Amino acid sequence: MNRKKVTNALLIVLALLLVVGMAYQFTPNIAGLFNRSGVDGTPALKVNGQTITVEELEQARRGNPVLSSTDTGVLGDDFKTYVVANQVQQALVKADTQDIKVSRADVNAEVDKVREQRDLKDNKAWTDFLQGIGLTDASAREQIRASIAIQRKADELKAAAPAPTDAEAQLYYDLNPEAFQSDARIQGRQIVVTDEAKARALLAQARGGADFAALASANSTENKDRGGALGPIEDGSSRPVAQVALPAEVGAAAFALTGGGLTDVIASGGKFYIVKVEKFLTPAPKPFEEARTDITAALKTQKENAAIEQWLSGLEKDAKIEYTDLNWKTENPTVATVAGKDIPYSEVVGAVVSNQQFGSLLQQVPPEQAGGLVNGILKPQVMQGLIQTYAAPALAEKLGLALTGTRQDIAQGLAAYGARDVKVTDADLQAFYDQNKQQFETPASATVSEASFRDRTQALAFRADWKGEAFTAAAGKAGATVSERGPVTAGDSKLSEELNAAVFSAKTLKDAGEGSLSDVIKVGERYSVLYAADLKQAVTQPLSAVKAQIEPQVLATKKGEAGQAFVTREVATLKPTDNLEKVLAAQAKRVAAAEPKPTTPAAPDSAAPGTPDSAAPAEAAPADTAPTETTPAPTDTVPTDSTTPPATDTTPATPASP
To answer: Which helix (H) or strand (E) holds 189?
Structure first.
């Protein structure tokens, strides 16, 4: 059965995934809980006595394109660790919510809702649908019952989360000023017409000093009754408006005029706009009391997430895993310790698997090469991030900061605290502008025609003699092949490099008619003369025009760097241990030892006299490599007869924490 089809169908059937709310958002691996088949299979391991089957583990691996990309080598070992850790967590969640009462009526109501949404009112249609995704009516109802139970547990946890304190609210406000600012606004007027020529004539009058309000009242199709004012008139002046009040192209042009002034004619939606910015109002912080409602809502969500994080961590703390199929036995050592907290290796793997760059890497290079890159670059970065996250609560307490939420929330709060005094200087803005000047440039453009001649003398004569009459007809009469290149922007690849330079970079263009002629340019075995009409040179906006646009970006970058440096320094005071290199070295050794050894048949005369070749002793594998961790063995390799019990290994679990 196609596992992807099963998963997608279950997500439709079990629409209650959405009601898990923050629990689902915070622990997305819980989704797999609702995809479990509930059918008998080959036992792989037990979590506090609850069986997880080989089939469930294999389905979880095959259902993820990253996890299914390889089951060998270092990455195969990592993926197995990830799958087992997530299935363990799912089993713990399901077990902990097993006793939550869910009535048959509650389940029936959800089943009826799903059947109605899918138009499966007929019992046969419902049964056929379930069979198509590998479920029975009973197993579907059990999964729905489990999802309702988890939702109720999440609701209990969220309801019990403490309310934000005044100290927490004030600190959150102080550390997140950008989150509580009003949008930039402008006061101004506009003229809107449907004819471009008319718009340009009106713009010329406005630039010449004509009264803009009078022009708008006489000509604009919008707001003419208030002299084109963008907002309603209040106390003799127009109400400021945000950028969203204008069409996208018009708003971008108007809000670039932070010092006020007139826009050019801007086309949008079949209309032509001219905006006069009379006053630019920069974003301003909202007062604390005005922002209090938003602050309280944000902190409430953080505290609810923290309650779920603590719940999951508590479930995993004392979990006991018994391995029945040693092919699925995983190594999940403590990879780092900070502030008395141990970080399991499965958390590093989980962060790698969910990293978008890692998914892209797997599509570009073989798994064995990707494994080396991940171990050398990505995992060390992930490790440092996890250490900082786990250290965050202890650091907040040490610094006396009223930060709340999950470990990640608190880590972000610490970074904001470390960057709280960062400011942007004029030198910072100038440096950013100089390094990124190209993005503030409107490239040169023109409408181009090309006359191509076989002979250079012909081309030179045509260029010298042409006086501005119809270019195409004159060039054709002179023996040229004419190509209408149409509108061209410098560097847009419509022209070859030589022709592009002849139009937009050369200083030898010759005025002719209403346009310009290029020099004679050799292109292959022919010679071209270009005619450029409507030539517009490149224009670069000055720093003053884009300052308001780039300042938030520069500030965010400076704050990010300062915050990261602060957290790194503070974490160092806790003297964390980082065993990643040792763990990776041990993994590499274990994986290499578990790989099948190539066998070379011995020559007939190589055996000792009287000793058959087949009796030659095989090299003993190291004891710690007996469980093959990269390629699961067929399920029938585990002894099942009554005299030989299956191998069982009991190991305290260290599953992935949220």
So the answer is: strand 185-193
